[in-house]
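Need residues for this backbone.
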C-alpha cells in the first residue's frame, strides 16, 4: 500500500489507485498518516475537518469516515478507535508514505552534504524532491491546508536549498542560474536562495548581476519589513566587491591557489594495527556537523613517544579524503626535537602548500595568520600538525573557519588549547602487539615461537614503536630464532640498545621527551624510577623525593603531562612508570 501526501492525497494498492472521495475523507486519511502511527484526538480531527464551527454531529461523522476508510483500504491498514481519538495502524513493511520516504532521503542527503560527499548529497536530495507532485495535501479541507501545508512546503524548500548547495560545490553554478532566478521570483524573501543566486552569478563571471541581486533584495527588505540583509549576506556582498578568491567554485579555487598538494601524505603502511575505537572517535570529532556561529573543534591525538600518534593521524587523514575535498596539508612542527618551528615559519610553509607565491606572503605574524585563514575559507581542507610542542605553537594555526579540520599530534596534553577534543592513546594490548609483530615477521614464524613472542612484547611494554623495531629486526634476520632476540632484550641494561634499527630508536624518542621536561621534573623522574614499574601514590612520591606531598604531586603531574608516568587508578590516585621509561632512567643515571 502506497500513500501520497506530497501532492493530491492518494492511496494506491500496487498499481491500482483507490478512490478516496471528498475533501473530508482525504483530510481524515491525511491526518492519520501525518500522525505516524500515533493517536489523533477527536479535537484535532474536528479542527482539521470543520475548523472552529463544527456541526453537532461530529462524533457520528468521524465514526462514518473511519468506517468508510476501513472499507476502502482493506485488511493491510487498520483504523482503530483509541480514546481520545483514532489511530491508523499498519502492517510492518506493508505500507509506505511518500512523506516518510522524502524525510529519509532528505536526511541522508543532508548528512552527505555535511560530510562533504557532494555527489551523494545531490543524488539523495534530488530523489527526495522528485517525490513531490505539486502542492502538498491537495484536495483536503482549507482548515487542514492552512495548518499543515506551510511546514511541508518549508521542508521542501530546505531540501531544495541543500541540493543547490551541493550542486554549487560541484561547480554547477552556470546551470543553476535560470532555476535560481525563478525561485527568487517565487520566494523573494528567502535569503538563502538570494545568496545562492548571487554566488552562482559571481562564479559565472556576472559580478554586476550578482551585485544587482543583492541591492534588489536590500531594497525589498527595507520597503516591506524595514530590515537590512543579515550579516552573512552583507559579508557575501563585500566578498564579491573585493573579488575574493574564496568565492570561486571548488574547481576554480583549486586553479587559483594551485591546490595541487594532494597527495601530500606519505603512503599508508600495510601493517596498520588495531585502534578501531580511536579511529572512530577522531573521525567523529573531525566530521561533526558545524554549528551556527562556531567553528569545528580541534582534535588532538596525545600519548607517550612511540605510541602511534602520527600513524593514527595519517590513517584518519587518508580515511577522510572524501570529506575534506579541498585537500590535506601536513606540517611537522618538531616539538620533540628540542627545536620546535616558530609560528611564522610554519605559516609560510602552509601558505606555500596552498599555492601562494613567496613574494605574496607577508612577513608580519598577524598578516600571516589572517592570510592563512582567508585562504582556507570555504576550501574544506584538513590540516594535520604533527609533533606539536605546546599550545602556544598550535593556537595561531587553528583555521578558525567552518568546513576545515585541524588534527594535531603531541606528547603534551594541550590542555590550555581552546576547543580541543583529545584522543589519548595507550599502549597496545598483548594481542594487538602480537598482531603487529605477525604482520611484519610472518604469522607462521610467530606461531612457531609463541612463548618467545609473548616475552618480547612484554619487554617492549606493548609500546607500538618498540614492537615495530623488534619485528623489523627479526624480519631483517630471517635466520634468527625469535627467542634469540627475546634473550638479548632481557639482558640487564641492554633493552634500549636492542630497540634501535636505522632511524628507529626507542631510546632517542624517550630522551627527546626527557629533555623537554623541566630540571626538577627530570630529577624527580630519575628518583622515582628506582621503584621500577611498581604502582605508587603521591605520598609515596613525596617520601622518595623528600618534599611536601603537594610539591611532589605537582612534579608527578608535570611528568604525566608528557606521558612518562601514567595514572593507573583514581580515588585515590595511583601512578606507574612504564617499563621502557624505567629502563631509560636507569641508563640515564648510569651515565651520570
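Answer:
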Amino acid at each position: 500500500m502506497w500513500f501520497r501526501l506530497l501532492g493530491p492525497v492518494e492511496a494506491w494498492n500496487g498499481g491500482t489507485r483507490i478512490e478516496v472521495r471528498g475533501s473530508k475523507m482525504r483530510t481524515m486519511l491525511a491526518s492519520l498518516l501525518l500522525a505516524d502511527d500515533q493517536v489523533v484526538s477527536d479535537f484535532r480531527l474536528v479542527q482539521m475537518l470543520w475548523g472552529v464551527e463544527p456541526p453537532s454531529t461530529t462524533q457520528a461523522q468521524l465514526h462514518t469516515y473511519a468506517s468508510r476508510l476501513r472499507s476502502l483500504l482493506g485488511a493491510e491498514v487498520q483504523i482503530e478507535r483509541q480514546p481520545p481519538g483514532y489511530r491508523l495502524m499498519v502492517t510492518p513493511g506493508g505500507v509506505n508514505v511518500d512523506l516518510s520516504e522524502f524525510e529519509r532521503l532528505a536526511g541522508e542527503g543532508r548528512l552527505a552534504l555535511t560530510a562533504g560527499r557532494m555527489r551523494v548529497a545531490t543524488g539523495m536530495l534530488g530523489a527526495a524532491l522528485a517525490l513531490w507532485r505539486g502542492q502538498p495535501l491537495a484536495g483536503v479541507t482549507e482548515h487542514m491546508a492552512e495548518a499543515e501545508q506551510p511546514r511541508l512546503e518549508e521542508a521542501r524548500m530546505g531540501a531544495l536549498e541543500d541540493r543547490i548547495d551541493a550542486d554549487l560545490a560541484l561547480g554547477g553554478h552556470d546551470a543553476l542560474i535560470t532555476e535560481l532566478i525563478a525561485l527568487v521570483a517565487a520566494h523573494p524573501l528567502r535569503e538563502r536562495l538570494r545568496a545562492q543566486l548571487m554566488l552562482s552569478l559571481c562564479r559565472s563571471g556576472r559580478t554586476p548581476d550578482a551585485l544587482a541581486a543583492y541591492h534588489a533584495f536590500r531594497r525589498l527588505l527595507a520597503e516591506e519589513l524595514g530590515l537590512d540583509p543579515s550579516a552573512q549576506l552583507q559579508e557575501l556582498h563585500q566578498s564579491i566587491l573585493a573579488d575574493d578568491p574564496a568565492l570561486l567554485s571548488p574547481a576554480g579555487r583549486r586553479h587559483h591557489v594551485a591546490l595541487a598538494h594532494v597527495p601530500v601524505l606519505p603512503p599508508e603502511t600495510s601493517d596498520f594495527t588495531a585502534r578501531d575505537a580511536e579511529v572512530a572517535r577522531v573521525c567523529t570529532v573531525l566530521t561533526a556537523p558545524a554549528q551556527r556561529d562556531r567553528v569545528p573543534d580541534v582534535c588532538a591525538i596525545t600519548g607517550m613517544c612511540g605510541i602511534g600518534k602520527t600513524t593514527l593521524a595519517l590513517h584518519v587523514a587518508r580515511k577522510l579524503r572524501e570529506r575534506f575535498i579541498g585537500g590535506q596539508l601536513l606540517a611537522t612542527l618538531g616539538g620533540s626535537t628540542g627545536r620546535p618551528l616558530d609560528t611564522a615559519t610554519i605559516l609560510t610553509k602552509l601558505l606555500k602548500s596552498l599555492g601562494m607565491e613567496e613574494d605574496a606572503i607577508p612577513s608580519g605574524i598577524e598578516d600571516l595568520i589572517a592570510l592563512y585563514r582567508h585562504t582556507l575559507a570555504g576550501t574544506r581542507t584538513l590540516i594535520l600538525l604533527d609533533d606539536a610542542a605546546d599550545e602556544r605553537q598550535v593556537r595561531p594555526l587553528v583555521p578558525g573557519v567552518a568546513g576545515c579540520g585541524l588534527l594535531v599530534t603531541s606528547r603534551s596534553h594541550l590542555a590550555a588549547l581552546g576547543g580541543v577534543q583529545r584522543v589519548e592513546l595507550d599502549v597496545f594490548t598483548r594481542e594487538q602487539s602480537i598482531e603487529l609483530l605477525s604482520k611484519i615477521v610472518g604469522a607462521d614464524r610467530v606461531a612457531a615461537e609463541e612463548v618467545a613472542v609473548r616475552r618480547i612484547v612484554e619487554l617492549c611494554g606493548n609500546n607500538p614503536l618498540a614492537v615495530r623495531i623488534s619485528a623489523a629486526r627479526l624480519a631483517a634476520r630471517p635466520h634468527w630464532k625469535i627467542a634469540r632476540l627475546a634473550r638479548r632484550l632481557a639482558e640487564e641494561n641492554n633493552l634500549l640498545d636492542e630497540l634501535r634499527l636505522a632511524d628507529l630508536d626507542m631510546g632517542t624518542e624517550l630522551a627527546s621527551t626527557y629533555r623537554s621536561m623541566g630540571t626538577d621534573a627530570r630529577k624527580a623522574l630519575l628518583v622515582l624510577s628506582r621503584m621500577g614499574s611498581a604502582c605508587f601514590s603521591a605520598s609515596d612520591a613525596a617520601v622518595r623525593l623528600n618534599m611536601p606531598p603537594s610539591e611532589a604531586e605537582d612534579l608527578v603531574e608535570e611528568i604525566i603531562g608528557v606521558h612518562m608516568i601514567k595514572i593507573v587508578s583514581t580515588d585515590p590516585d595511583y601512578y606507574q612508570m612504564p617499563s621502557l621509561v624505567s629502563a631509560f632512567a636507569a641508563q640515564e643515571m648510569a651515565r651520570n
